[in-house]
Write a structure and sequence with these properties.
The structure is a single chain. By secondary structure, the chain is of the alpha+beta class. Helices cover 43% and strands 24% of the residues. It has two domains: 169 residues, Jelly Rolls; 106 residues, Homeodomain-like (Arc Repressor Mutant, subunit A), CATH 1.10.10. β4 and β5 form a beta hairpin. α3 packs antiparallel against α4, α5 crosses α7 and α8 crosses α10. The radius of gyration is 22 Å and the shape is globular.
């Protein structure tokens, strides 16, 4: 698998990676970092994780003049693509693409010979996160025969470049969190290789879940209202700590409260209020991993002014109090590490 990208105008290489196509669970994970700046405050930063059949790219770019980037992958590949920026004009050979990217959206696509150009506007931050899998690697982490995936699998078999879904879908908070975990993994060696592959599987499940939600029947919701509901979900994902009230959210997305309440539950299987609580509780659980943080601090950081309200919500969600979770977290962490080491030994 060969991956290359460069600035066309300057013929300057950004990424040049060569790795084997095959899947090997024992192959080593290699890290690379690129950081370039000039006197015009233009910048290219790219962090790469590389192993057999897998390349993860985390890239940010900023230019003072318009630039065009050429990106190529030499072999059959499946790309889990996460876009953080607007206004990047995109063209991918063999794939139908919109003229410009949409901020905070994701999709999965297959291509037998990837070649794409990206036109970047000046003074715009370009930011993308991509997981590039060889066909062999992808086949080892997914069941190709299950219903949602059948058409995509047939396209891969026929070497027909295609998207898993026709349009990019907004991020969920869970997707953002798993990407954060991948980017901030401090493990080393074999444990890091195991951890990253586990997180890729988790991220793939989360992506497919959003596609299932999109494909679910919504007879009474037209496309315009559905897009507004997706916008509402994205607003809550971005700032659930200071989440707007239902009337405020209704005004922001220009959809009446009745349609917002009924449509949100139909699309996402959860009420607006319950979704906010779920996001806050998941955030609280992560905050409690810090030994020094107090219950009061976590409550405040999760948007609660009254710690008793927070404690009641936490206990209702997890089945035990935040104080008990905080006390037991160290023993939980030790159990997880022991389980991973035992799994590695058995394999």
């Amino acid at each position: 698998m060969k991956i290359k990208s460069k600035l066309i105008n300057q013929d300057q290489s950004i990424v040049s990676i060569v790795t084997r196509d095959g899947y090997d669970p024992k192959s080593h994970l290699i890290q690379e970092k690129i950081c370039r700046k000039n006197e015009l405050k233009e910048e290219i930063k790219s962090f790469h994780l590389i192993t057999d059949g897998l390349v993860i790219l985390d890239t940010q770019m900023y230019f003072s003049e318009p630039q065009t980037i050429l990106f190529e992958i030499s072999c059959e590949s499946i790309i889990m693509n996460f876009i953080y920026c607007n206004n990047v004009e995109t063209h991918i050979d063999q794939l139908e693409t919109k003229n410009s990217t949409q901020e905070n959206t994701h999709n999965i696509f297959y291509t037998s010979n990837y070649r794409a150009t990206f036109k970047i506007q000046p003074f715009e931050q370009m930011n993308y996160f991509s997981i590039i899998l060889s066909k062999d690697f992808y086949s080892n982490i997914i069941n190709e025969d299950w219903e949602l995936h059948q058409k995509f699998s047939k396209d891969i078999l026929l070497k027909k470049s295609s998207y898993l879904t026709s349009s990019y879908i907004p991020f969920t908070q869970s997707i953002l969190w798993v990407i954060h975990e991948i980017k901030n993994c401090n493990r080393q060696g074999t444990l890091k290789r195991m951890y990253i592959e586990t997180k890729i599987k988790e991220l793939l499940i989360l992506q497919l879940e959003t596609l299932i939600e999109k494909a679910a029947p919504k007879d009474f919701i037209n496309e315009e209202d559905y897009n507004k509901l997706q916008q509402a979900k994205l607003i809550l994902d971005k700032d659930y700590v200071h989440a707007p009230t239902l009337p405020e959210l209704s005004r922001i997305i220009s959809l009446n409260e009745f349609k917002l309440k009924k449509g949100f539950k139909a699309c996402f299987g959860i009420t607006v209020k319950s979704y906010i609580i779920e996001l806050r509780m998941k955030h609280a659980k992560e905050l409690f991993k810090s030994k020094s943080i107090s219950v009061n601090e976590v409550a405040y950081k999760c948007g609660y002014k009254d710690v008793s309200h927070f404690s009641a919500a936490f206990k209702a969600f997890y089945g035990f109090s935040p104080q008990k979770f905080k006390i037991n977290w160290n023993s939980i962490t030790i159990w997880i590490i022991s389980f991973l080491l035992l799994s590695q030994y058995k394999s």
